[in-house]
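$ ./design --mode recover --in tokens.txt
reading tokens...
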């Protein structure tokens, strides 16, 4: 049987209202009485009704994380880190999947803000910034996470990662190995190029080393392993002399590994492949994928701390704060890269 405030009141010999005040930390109960009531609640095994508390205080004791596609391995792995950070700070985490649809994102923002959550961490992806700004202006903080353009931050609280530098690290690795005939797989389609900064960082670094990437060898791909497989197969069929492929995330890179296997192209003997992010599957693939790791635990912690600071007022919301993750992306050299084969 569920223990109620009435049960605690009966044991303490006080009114239900007094128990409610004591549990809520209100000042009209003595510290001695509060301590006694809390101890009785502990002895009886009282568990507060989260929904009732949210209704009584006008806010929910939860935070929300909005992701683009929970089927993408990056997002559940990132969600684990966000949940850890929220839990360590005494909060629950609600996870919402927008399916990369701005209208679903708008619906979630409107329905959960201030009702099911005190604040929201929203992955940059497909959300409309105007919708984020509107919710922030309503008094419910929304932190945009994994924003890729630190110099062009949106008018909303933001946590950014320097993905252009991550791509530069990937380029530097391939160039140091001696690769010059390089193809690129980029997340996006003919309407959107989601990883533009990553592409720019890679191309800039290659150009500075005197290597010009043929535009015909830059292929857009859907953000899935299957998308990477199909796009890599088309690229390698059209340009069989390529000695390396850079993919703007690990899913596309894993797809490239699969395409090479199906085409009987040895990796890394004939083709090197490198990605970005370092999802768990990168180290578990065969061969293990070389990638540039993004510090997801640090990103998650920064995002939750920023959100809680906005909620309690310790961080001013105006101007919208911008946090740049200080830890640089880290190269993880594994089995999928090596010097190009000698002619």
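writing sequence...
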């Amino acid at each position: 049987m569920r223990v109620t405030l009435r049960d605690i009141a009966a044991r303490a010999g006080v009114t239900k209202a007094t128990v409610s005040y004591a549990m809520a930390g209100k000042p009209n109960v003595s510290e001695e009485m509060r301590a006694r009531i809390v101890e009785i609640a502990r002895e009886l095994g009282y568990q507060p009704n989260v929904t009732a508390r949210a209704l009584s205080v006008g806010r929910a004791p939860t935070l929300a994380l909005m992701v683009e596609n929970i089927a993408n391995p990056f997002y559940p792995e990132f969600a684990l880190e966000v949940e850890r950070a929220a839990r360590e700070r005494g909060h629950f985490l609600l996870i919402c999947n927008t399916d990369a649809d701005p209208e679903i994102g708008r619906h979630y923002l409107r329905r959960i803000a201030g009702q099911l959550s005190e604040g929201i961490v929203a992955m940059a992806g497909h959300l409309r910034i105007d919708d984020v700004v509107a919710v922030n202006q309503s008094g419910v903080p929304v932190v945009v996470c994994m924003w890729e353009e630190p110099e062009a931050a949106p008018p909303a609280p933001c946590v950014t990662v320097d993905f252009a530098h991550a791509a530069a690290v990937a380029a530097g690795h391939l160039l140091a190995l001696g690769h010059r005939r390089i193809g690129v797989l980029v997340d996006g389609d003919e309407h959107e190029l989601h990883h533009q900064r990553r592409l720019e960082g890679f191309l800039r670094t290659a150009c500075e080393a005197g290597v010009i990437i043929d535009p015909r060898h830059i292929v857009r791909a859907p953000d899935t392993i299957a998308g990477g497989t199909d796009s890599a197969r088309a690229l390698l069929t059209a340009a069989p002399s390529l000695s390396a492929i850079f993919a703007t995330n690990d899913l596309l890179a894993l797809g490239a590994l699969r395409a090479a296997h199906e085409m009987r192209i040895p990796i890394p003997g004939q083709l090197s492949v490198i990605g970005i992010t370092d999802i768990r599957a990168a180290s578990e693939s065969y061969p293990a994928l070389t990638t540039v790791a993004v510090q997801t635990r640090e990103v998650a912690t920064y995002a939750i701390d920023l959100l809680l600071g906005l909620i309690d007022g310790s961080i001013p919301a105006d101007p919208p704060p911008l946090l740049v993750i200080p830890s640089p992306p880290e190269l993880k050299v594994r089995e999928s890269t090596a010097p190009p084969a000698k002619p």
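exit 0
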